[in-house]
Amino acid sequence: MDVSNRAFNFCAGPAALPEAVLQRAQAEMLDWHGKGLSVMEMSHRSDDYTALAQKAEQDLRDLLSIPSNYKVLFLQGGASQQFAEIPLNLLPEGGVADYIDTGIWSRKAIDEARRYGTINVAASAKPLDYLDLPVQAEWKLSDQAAYVHYASNETIGGLEFQWVPQVDAPLVVDMSSNILSRPINVADYGMIYAGAQKNIGPSGLVVVIIREDLLGNARASCPTMLNYKVAADNGSMYNTPATYSWYLSGLVFEWLKEQGGVTAMEQRNRAKKDKLYAFIDGSDFYSNPIAPAARSWMNVPFRLADERLDSAFLAGADARGLLNLKGHRSVGGMRASIYNALGMNAIDALVAYMAEFEKEHA
Ligand SMILES: Cc1ncc(COP(=O)(O)O)c(C=O)c1O
After folding, report:
1. Reported pTM
2. Which of 61, 70, 92, 243 has the fewest CB atoms within 10 Å, i.e. the most exposed one?
């Protein structure tokens, strides 16, 4: 395959995938392992697909050192469907759940959960204009919360927890945009979920990692398809799963292992974000407003000194193969999403362009 035309894709999601993974998928596309068919055309009940799916799960377990008392589910409906699935499975009728509001994604989770019960917003970053995280000492947690929900990385705002909240209730975390970016201790959480289309694989898949004792308490009204226990009892194959997305995610997990796993990713991601933030902070032309201790490693929003230059900046970036740098429509400005699949060469290319643009326009 000619990769000379591959751009640097800074999209927040669906995001860049490792080139080696795409090449492997291409090589296996028409004839998977000499079987004469593609993965897309395989029965999900076949021995070949079952083995492939189980290997993907095992590789993810290895990467995150997932303890054996956690189930790993490969579900559909994206992270957004989890916003409803979580209360339907974990919030009993008449119960209360605590939520932390740190931006657009955690607010979406709050709004959806409110359809199913009493939601206590125990802390909010709103008084901080969503530029910093509310310190845990000021959180107003409920005595009997069924769980505490938060988003470890706000993909749009660029605000990331660099610490794990200490709470008594099971911690439920939306890790869509920073899972696999560095090591975590799975046992800190009751449940972790992540839409695939950033650090895992293609869209169409959401990964749920859930402690076994939290299974089996879904409401009677919970649709069968949304019941975690049903999914767990059926190996995430109660119905036909997103077979190709699962396969491709498996290739990403293999690639991650070859790279040295999440410890290697941490080193690489730290160096990437350090270089980009240092450049932004060192310039009077670009700025990032997030409190340094809460800055995201994965999504770096930044502004130009004069927003009238935004479209020229984006056009120049596009022309150099630096794609999808436009910030989310709700916040404007720019955003560089620098997930695992992007290497330091992407940061170098971006910083070189930013410096050049500044020189021309400052
Ligand atoms: C942190 C976070 N949570 C949830 C979502 C929603 O994911 P999905 O589109 O898979 O429903 C996103 C999507 O970008 C996200 O970044």
Report:
1. 0.98
2. 92
